[in-house]
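[Q] Does anyone have a clean structure-token version of this?
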Amino acid sequence: MLKKIKKVLESQNNFKLDFVSGVVTALLFSAFIYLEYFGITIKLINSVFGILSLTLLLHISKRAILVAGFFIGVLWFYWIGYSFEYNDVGFMTPFITFAFAIIYMLFFGVLALTRSVAVRAILLFGLSFLEPLDFNWLQIELIFVDSYIGIFKYQLFAILTALCLLSYLKKPYKYLAILPLFLALNQAGEILNIKAPIQKDAPLKIKLVATDITQDAKWKRESLNPTVQLAYSEIRSAIKDGYDVVVLPESVFPLYMNRAPTLMRQLLLLSYDITIVAGSLLNENNQHYNVTYLFADGSFKIAKKLVLVPFGEYIPLPKFAKKFINEIFFKGSSDFKTATKPTDFLIKGVEFRNAICYEATCQEIYEGNVSFVIATSNNAWFSPSIEPTLQKLLMRYYARKNGVTIYHSANYRGTGIIK
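[A] Here you go.
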């Protein structure tokens, strides 16, 4: 009897230890997002926390791995369900949060298949290439985006190699683990003669407009005229201040622009004085598109969105499930169509790649010869939350990887130049 009680107590203690170590791992893995949210960017802290989180993922118990994955899913993506409120299915929000927690518990749960540090390191490196449900906002290298550690795959590999060597080498050879760690530093590229892409500023004076229109008010009929007048005011202010370009957020004009001839005429007139980049919608051949309009010198160009948001603008599931979910939970709204390739705007001799919200965090937008990106977003879907912060960090990650400067205009937080 005493032996049974002892086993129960040991099991309870082990569970507590596993739970705590899993939560600590998740907190360390997520800390850089919340520090950025509160305006704290300390490279040393981000470097140490990032390395510690990877170390724990290689060493903690199998049960702790599942706990860590669950809470990483919560800490990174608790906000995703917020948008369901605007489709009159707000009751789904906690279920969506729980679903993402389970998804990332299973995602990181692959590491729980083994206790071998080396095998876990290989599996963790492999996970850095995977995107569950086509959603790519968990990039393992992202934890080092504002640190002394680099964000390229070879640098993640170098860190994992160093952590493995620390586990397997005996003294005095443990110090050899420092060698691959040096390769993970930001300066490693110079040592290896791997030149990082160079970021530069566009030779134009660009005004990035930040708006703060709540999502519940944005699409109401009575909000349309004040919203349009706000846009006109920002454009005229930019003209007065001598800007070359004014960029307004995604869907700043909450209507099908091609069905609003009076509005288009006014913007075309204003475009003789300044180039206008603004988000709106397009209805073409009974198909819906999320688009960016470029108005310049009395003419316009339309850029259709290339990469849609999973479960927001399309359903990444088999056809038999797609229609049901679309009709029940999205009232048929998740049926936007896409462009077949990225769109480039030529503005006063300078080429800019167009990106609408989620696109700016996808590698597809950065393919080819791209130096500058104009990105527009509507982050009010997820207010209040860390979503704009995570989006900014991801943009920074892709900008640095590809040597691109991003000019970002957003509704509800995130507006600015991102390098």
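[Q] Thanks! Anything notable?
[A] The mean pLDDT is 90.
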